[in-house]
Amino acid sequence: MKKGKKLTRNQAEMIKATGFDPEKWLVVKNLHDRMEIVHRETGNIRVIAK
User: Fold this and answer.
1) What is the spatial distance between Cα 42 and Cα 30, in angstroms, rounded to a whole number?
2) C or N terminus of the chain, fewer CB within 10 Å?
3) How far is the C-alpha of 26 from the C-alpha of 39, rounded, in Å?
């Protein structure tokens, strides 16, 4: 499993806008067109388009 990093304020707002709870997600990759996030407890990975 990839290790995630704590969210910045802008990243948390983007995750909240997609309907996810920012407190339960960590950032794995932050690219210019998408952001990969991983769930803190289950390890599920999601991709969010910017």
Assistant:
1) 20
2) N
3) 6
Cβ-based neighbour number of residue 26 at 10 Å: 17
Phi and psi for 34 in degrees, rounded to 5? -155, 165
pTM: 0.88
Phi, psi of 2 (to 5 degrees): -75, 145
Domain span at residue 37 reads: 9-49
Q: Could you read off the pLDDT of 15-37 as tens digits, one per residue?
A: 999 999 999 999 999 999 999 99
Residue 1 within any structural domain of the chain: no
Domain count, the chain: 1
Q: Look at residue 4 and tell me if it is in a domain.
A: no
